């Protein structure tokens, strides 16, 4: 008797139809190898930028996300070789689904420091709270998704509780991202008003580089939000009898492309890119902060991407 799913699956391409697999298709080998190669490149770039600009925490979060993606897409390559591989399925489910949590963590930490650097007094939420609230929520999302994956693994994918936990993690991630987007948009509107009220002194301090930095952060968070909404909708029907989970084109477009473009947006939404002179000089002796203070009409704290205590 053939078993098509679970740790004891014994189907092969010669013995069982592809429709017996969870995805009902054989994952594209060229597409998944391409994503693996792209994430290796992205990982290398983020490590280089992190070392160059000494943005250790941002680099760590981005590196973890890229490593998760590489492992996840390697799992899909395993599924190309053997579409009934339960190990390949669990690798891609846990790593591809959970990886973006690290990217949002990098964004939360970076924006909290940007708010502290530019004008902390106009933020409705204290800069320190951006870090603690949203990072804590991110950790909760990751735990729920990992727990859901573990239950699915132990139950051969049949655990409704496992599906519900993974769904809860994804839904919470969507809610957290929407709330964050609201605070982000509110801060940028209030900051634009502050620019107009303070005239050219403050406006001159916000360079094209910083505008690209904020644009990169905003684009990345919106792309991740779109992807999370797609994954919630995909998982809402479970791992079986789902018309979305069997559509590889949707997966490639709304998961693969969306998240990779978000990772690329964070090349410019990088704390080192946005605050290069501050970040490097701060670590060398905080000399740049003294130069900046002479150009601003109000006092601002020096920038670092290390978490606040």
TrEMBL record:
<feature type="transmembrane region" description="Helical">
    <location>
        <begin position="250"/>
        <end position="269"/>
    </location>
</feature>
<dbReference type="Pfam" id="PF04479">
    <property type="entry name" value="RTA1"/>
</dbReference>
<feature type="transmembrane region" description="Helical">
    <location>
        <begin position="170"/>
        <end position="191"/>
    </location>
</feature>
<feature type="transmembrane region" description="Helical">
    <location>
        <begin position="56"/>
        <end position="74"/>
    </location>
</feature>
<feature type="transmembrane region" description="Helical">
    <location>
        <begin position="86"/>
        <end position="109"/>
    </location>
</feature>
<dbReference type="GO" id="GO:0005886">
    <property type="term" value="C:plasma membrane"/>
</dbReference>
<feature type="transmembrane region" description="Helical">
    <location>
        <begin position="29"/>
        <end position="49"/>
    </location>
</feature>
<feature type="transmembrane region" description="Helical">
    <location>
        <begin position="130"/>
        <end position="150"/>
    </location>
</feature>
<keyword id="KW-1133">Transmembrane helix</keyword>
<protein>
    <recommendedName>
        <fullName>RTA1 like protein</fullName>
    </recommendedName>
</protein>
<keyword id="KW-0472">Membrane</keyword>
<dbReference type="InterPro" id="IPR007568">
    <property type="entry name" value="RTA1"/>
</dbReference>
<dbReference type="GO" id="GO:0000324">
    <property type="term" value="C:fungal-type vacuole"/>
</dbReference>
<feature type="transmembrane region" description="Helical">
    <location>
        <begin position="212"/>
        <end position="230"/>
    </location>
</feature>
<keyword id="KW-0812">Transmembrane</keyword>
